[in-house]
Amino acid sequence: MLLLLMIIMMILMYCYRTAFYVKPGHHEDPYNLPQNEQYQPYYHAMVHLVDALNNEPYEAVSIKSFDGLTLRGRLYIYDEHAPIELAFNGYRTDGIHDCGGVFQIARRLGHNMLVVDQRATGDSDGNVISFGINERYDVVAWAEYIAHHYPQMKIVLVGGSLGAATVLMASELKLPVNVVGVVADSAYTSPKAIIKKVIQRMNLSPTIMYPFVKLSAKLFGHFNLEASSPIQAVRKTKLPVLIIHGEDDRYVPCSMAHQNYAACKSPIKMLLTIPKGPHDISLLVDWDKYQGTVVKFFKRIGVPVKKE
C-alpha cells in the first residue's frame, strides 16, 4: 500500500512539474524561437520582431496580483488620447518573445501598448502557470491599473496562445468600462481540452493521465484546473471578440477557434483563420489579411485607428 502511494505521489509530482511548475529565478530567453520546419520560413522575421520590441524605449511598470505576486510589464505610451492594447504572452515564454508582431500593428494604427509578462514568466513573480485560471484575474488587475492612470484611454485586451485563452477567460469578469474589446490569437477551448491533447501527443492515455494532472494542480498549485475556460467565458461575455487562428496550428487545433466562436454570445464577434498558419504566428503568414481584419474589428467597435 505504501509503495502504491509513493508511485501515485511520484506521478502527481511529475504531472505538476511538467505542466505547471516554473523553477524560481528562471528567465526565458526571448530569442529562443521555434525553428522546426513549420517555423523556419519565418525565423528571421520573428527575430526582427523580438529585436524591434526589445530595443523600443519603455516605462517599466508593476502591480500586485490578488495573491501577492509582483507582476511586471513594459508600457509604451505615444499618445495619451489614443487607445491602448494590453498584450499577454503565452505558455512558458514572455512578452518580448510573443508580442512583437501585435506591437508593430498597434504602432501602425497609432495605439499605445502595455506588454505584460504573465505570472511565472519573464520578469514577473510566481512559479505556477495555471492555464488562465489565476491569470484571468491578473488581466483584470492590469486593466484596472491602466484605467486608473489613463482613464481617458479605450482598452483592448490582446493575447496569443495561453495569453489568448487568458483574455477570453477574463472577458466574463468585472472589467473597467474602458475595456471595449478582446483579440485572441490561437486560444484553446479549455485547459482540460488542451492538456488532454498534449497527453495524447505524448502517446499516453488522456483518460488515465488527466485526473492525475488535475489533482496535481489542486494539491501543489492550489488551483482548480476546471474553474473556468475560454469556451465557458465567451458564453457569458458582453465584450466584442475577435478570434484568430492558424489553420495549420499543430499545438492548439484550429477547430478550437471554431468552437469558441460558435459558443461566443457577444453582440459583436469575428473569426479569422489563416491558411497554412502555424501556432501563434499567423500574422507573419498573411500580414495584410491579419492587420486588415484587426482594423475592421477596431472600426466596428469604435476604436480609432490612424489613417495610413
Please explain how this structure is put together.
The longest helix is centred in the first third of the chain and has 18 residues, at 2-19. α2 packs across α4 (100-108) and α7 crosses α8 (206-221). The chain has a single domain, classed as Rossmann fold (3-Layer(aba) Sandwich), CATH 3.40.50. The protein is built from 12 helices and 8 strands. The chain has helices at residues 2-19, 43-54, 95-98, 100-108, 135-149, 162-170, 191-201, 206-221, 230-234, 255-263, 282-285, 287-300, and strands at 59-64, 70-76, 84-88, 112-117, 155-160, 179-185, 241-246, 269-274. 46% of the residues are buried. It comes from Ligilactobacillus aviarius.
Structural class: alpha/beta
Number of beta-strand segments: 8
CATH architecture: 3-Layer(aba) Sandwich
Give Rg in angstroms.
Answer: 19 Å
First and last CA, distance: 70 Å
In CATH, the homologous superfamily goes by the name: Alpha/Beta hydrolase fold, catalytic domain
Series of secondary-structure elements, N-terminal to C-terminal: HHEEEHHEHEHEHHHEHEHH
At the fold tier of CATH, the topology name is Rossmann fold
Going across the biggest sheet, name each strand in turn.
1-2-4-3-5-6-7-8
- Note the quaternary state here: single chain
**Name of the level-1 CATH class:** Alpha Beta
Helix content: 40-55%
Characterize the overall form: globular
The main β sheet shows up as: 8 strands, mixed
Number of domains: 1
H/I helix tally: 12
Low-confidence stretches: none
Mean of pLDDT: 96
Query: How much of the sequence is in beta strands?
Result: 15-25%
GO molecular function: hydrolase activity
Keywords: Hydrolase
Protein name: Alpha/beta hydrolase
Domain AB hydrolase-1: 108-209
